[in-house]
Amino acid sequence: MKLNSHPLHWHRITLLILLLCQGACSPKSTFRIIEKPITWTSEREALSVKYLKERHGIDQETASIDPKMVVIHWTAIPTIEVTFDVFDPPTLEGRDDLTGASLLNVSSQFLIDRDGTIFRLLPDTTFARHTIGLNYLAIGVENIGSDKMPLTKQQLKANEELVRYLKRKYDIEYVIGHHEYQNFQATELWKEADPDYRTVKTDPGDVFMKKLRKNLEDLNLKPIPTL
User: Fold this and answer.
1) CA distance linking residue 163 with residue 170, whole number of Å
2) Residue 176 Cα to chain centre, angstroms
3) By three-state DSSP, how is residue 101 classified?
4) Which residues face 119 on adjacent strands?
5) Beta pairing partners, 69
6) Is 203 or 10 the better-scoring residue by pLDDT?
7) Which of 7, 14, 68, 150 lies 20 to 30 Å from 166, alpha-carbon distance?
8) Alpha helix segments (H runs only) across 182-222
9) pLDDT (tens digit, 9 = 90+) per residue, 45-92?
10) pTM for this structure?
11) Neighbours of 216 (CB within 10 A)
12) Straight-line distance from the first to the last Cα atom of the chain, in angstroms, rounded to the nearest whole number
């Protein structure tokens, strides 16, 4: 069978290939959030409402938040699968430093893999226990990483894109690292009933947060309070 050798025919084929490559071969990836919900039961809802009342002094019927802040974390767990399994149960076990405050399991609204893939574990405005004193207004973003496994360039880009996405939806005023949360103790935003309930955090570190804040300069976010 003889192929059509007409110049117009080959021009059309070339144009089609170029159009396809603009979508499939583009070096700029598309911002996506993959839904991967952790288990939400009536028990988790009740524990969350109880936490809001007893720890934050907020009495409401639903476990919801009005986001004003994004808190960046790392998991200290090396994989998405294990991290998900840790966050999935409604109740927390094996953490005496945390269970004394509440049996509600820790979690976050978002989880970012090493390659920058973003997973949504909970709806943006659903309460999650991830930052002492600030859970009631903070969206948590966990990143697969640790002291020995620094966050990647792909994760930096994904965090930037996610913050921009959340800023468009909500009145986000602060983006902080988990290690910076105690800087808010003297502010009106701080709500923790126990003056001695604190944990020392290093995630995600000053180096990562400096890079992230530089990339977000145009958003004019509020500076972190100083102690």
Assistant:
1) 10
2) 11
3) coil
4) 34, 111
5) 138, 174
6) 203
7) 150
8) 206-215
9) 999 999 999 999 999 999 999 999 999 999 999 999 999 999 999 999
10) 0.87
11) 17
12) 79
d(CA 111, CA 53): 26
Residue holding tokens 């955090």? 201
188, with CB counted inside 10 A (0-12, 13-18, 19+), is exposed
DSSP for 19-69, written as a single string = HHHHHHS-SSPPP-EEE-PPP--HHHHHHHHHHHHHTT----SS-B----E
Mean pLDDT score, 29-33: 89
Distance (Å, rounded) from C-alpha 63 to C-alpha 34? 22
39: nearest Cα among 133, 116, 118, 105: 105
Helix (H, G, I), strand (E, B) or coil at 194: coil
Mean pLDDT, the chain, integer: 91
Per-residue pLDDT band at 95 (split at 50, 70, 90):
confident
Sheet with 69-74: strands ordered across: 33-35, 118-120, 110-112, 138-143, 69-74, 174-177
CA dist 101 and 113 (Å) reads 29
Dihedral sign for Cα 68, 113, 132, 46, please. Answer: positive
